[in-house]
């Protein structure tokens, strides 16, 4: 039997309702904050991600799906969307049209990771990118936006962890500090981390090997920032304080992608385990220039939708009835008349369905219940001879006779 690939999942109708709820809530919050949707392709040149996310990162080294297309071009399935949005921003001169550009996206991403709870190979992100300002208030705004979305989804037990990696120069100094601190333990690192030590020492923080984790846990990761970056971070914190948002400064938040500068943050949800962030992001003030655009500061974040679903599962989101009405046919030869009523109801915007399987009345009633129909219109029998149908209100468990001509008005009412 053919099966879905490991690390991928079908989202069946029952679960899809939850996805729609999350998407609708996020679209609502994003629009309130002035973000507009951008949709970029799922495939891009692999070099886009290698250059932006970084050659020494796990994503590029181990997780990216890369293939040669029929023209011999090296293509990647996008492992994240920030690089794609930046590519599009530069290619379409979006900044010259609208100054500060506030963009959001919702869609599938691909990383060949070991699947586990809340970690898939095809997963979905919803994220924002605010491109064109270095204002610390913008950093605070996107953190507020992320926590606002969580609250809208009725998720409350989360922690916001923030840090600043400083500017390019600060980052280099931080790397040097880390290199010095880790050097005495070089022999105890795993082979991969020995390589990471040479290429990008920050990536040792992402290593899942317990021995390497123990080494980084014991090094002092407190960063010394230049005056400008220190001041920027102070203003971010003071803005968050002003917004009464609770957060923790955690100098171990270094992020698994190379493009970050200054403020970075992660939101963890206790039930998912402290390791797995439900949302993550930060500033990437050099990326647009590094990718060939004009120097343009920017910041953003992405939520993992599968992790949001896990966080919501326990809190009861009622999916609500999906049908307004169901037409149950008693006399099969009256199907045509029932079918005409079905069209009239649908034309009025009433969601409605009918039995196409020749089921018994009892089975049709069960089906109506399973579909969450608010009303069942029982079509046939003596009532029909008098030009009437039985209208059953499934929520109130009441039934009354209604003239066929009045059904549309009655159900609409
Ligand atoms: P990231 O930390 O790689 O950042 O991913 C963001 C979020 O995507 C994670 O916190 C997690 O919730 C979810 N996620 C990542 N990998 C998986 C997976 N294999 N399965 C399920 N969920 C996953 C980024 O992608 C950046 N582009 C975020 C950003 C936007 N930074 C600035 N702007």
Give the overall silhouette.
elongated
Give the number of helices.
16
Count of the separate structural domains:
2
CATH topology of the largest domain: BirA Bifunctional Protein, domain 2
Low-confidence stretches: none
Share of helix, binned = 25-40%
Order of adjacent strands in the largest pleated sheet: 1-5-6-11-10-9-7-8
| Assembly annotation | single chain
Summarize the structure in words.
- The structure is a single chain.
- The protein is 39% helix and 23% strand.
- The protein is an alpha+beta fold.
- It has two domains: 13-166 and 225-312, BirA Bifunctional Protein, domain 2 (2-Layer Sandwich), CATH 3.30.930; 325-412, Anticodon-binding domain (Rossmann fold).
- Helix 1 packs antiparallel against helix 6 and helix 6 packs parallel to helix 10 (227-242).
- The chain is elongated.
- It binds histidyl-adenosine monophosphate (HAM).
- Residues 80, 82, 111, 113, 118-120, 123, 125, 127, 129, 256-257, 277-282, 300-302, 304, 306-307 line the site of histidyl-adenosine monophosphate (HAM).
